[in-house]
Amino acid sequence: MTADCIFCQIIAHEAPAEILYQDERVTAFQDIHPAAPIHILVVPNKHIPSINEASEEDAALLGHMQLIAQKIAKEQGIASRGYRLITNVGNEGGQVVYHLHLHLLGGKRLSFTRYI
Ligand code: AMP
Ligand code: ZN
To answer: Quick one: which atom of ligand 1 is closest to the CA of 97?
Structure first.
């Protein structure tokens, strides 16, 4: 837990969020500024600032994040329609919150040429 990290605070239930799923390794919650009809963030409970700081010991955790995103997509009814999983990395990648997260975006046809 990093005290000044908003996602660590959400994971610890110290900041408000609409949490859809939580286990001992990951938490998923609604994005506060949805960019698509469905916009959910899947985050590791461990504070990893970005994918740049992930290491081999995080490999299973990164895989678990993907599989939880898949599970949530099924629950949201968009798995067969299709959706997008995105991780922004660093300044030029558009990362704003420096706690690793997977954006699960869906519920509409997403553009091939744009982020959403
Ligand atoms: P990124 O640009 O990849 O770092 O994305 C950060 C995402 O976190 C954005 O889509 C924000 O809308 C979202 N966000 C920031 N603060 C919160 C919060 N308190 N609760 C839920 N989502 C948040
Ligand atoms: Zn954090």
So the answer is: 4
Per residue in 64-84, pLDDT (tens digit) is 999 999 999 999 999 999 999
Question: Would you call 47 a catalytic residue per the annotation?
Answer: no
Contacts of 4 (CB under 8 A, 6+ apart): none
Give the number of other Cβ atoms within 10 Å of residue 108's Cβ: 13
Q: Which helix or strand (DSSP H or E) is residue 73 part of? A: helix 59-75
pLDDT digits (tens, 9 = 90+) for 103-113: 999 999 998 77
Number of Cβ within a 10 Å radius of residue 40: 26
Instruction: State the ligand closest to the CA atom of 15.
Output: 1
Cβ proximity of 42 and 61 under 8 Å: no
